[in-house]
Amino acid sequence: MPGTARPSPAEPAGRLVALDRMRGFLVGLVVLHHAVLAYCTFGHVDRVHYALSTAPIVDSARWIGFDYLVMLNDGFFMPLLFGLSGLFVRDGLARRGAKAYLRARLSRLGLPFCAAVLTLMPLAYYPSFLQAGGAPGFSDFWLATVTTGPWPSGPPWFIGVLLLFDAGAALMVARGPALPRAADPWRPGRCFAVLVAVTAAAFLPFLLAVGPVRWFAIGPLAVQGSRIGLYAAYFAAGAWLGRGGGAAVAGFGRALARRCGLWVALAVAAGAAFLAAPQLGRALHLPGFATLALVGAVQAVFCTAASFALPAVFLRVAGGRRPALDSLAANGFAIYLLHYPVATWVQAGLLRLTAGAVAKGCAAFAVALAGSWVAAAALRRLLLVGRRLVK
Question: Which of 24, 47, 110, 314 has a C-alpha 20 to 30 A away from that of 259?
Answer without folding.
Answer: 24
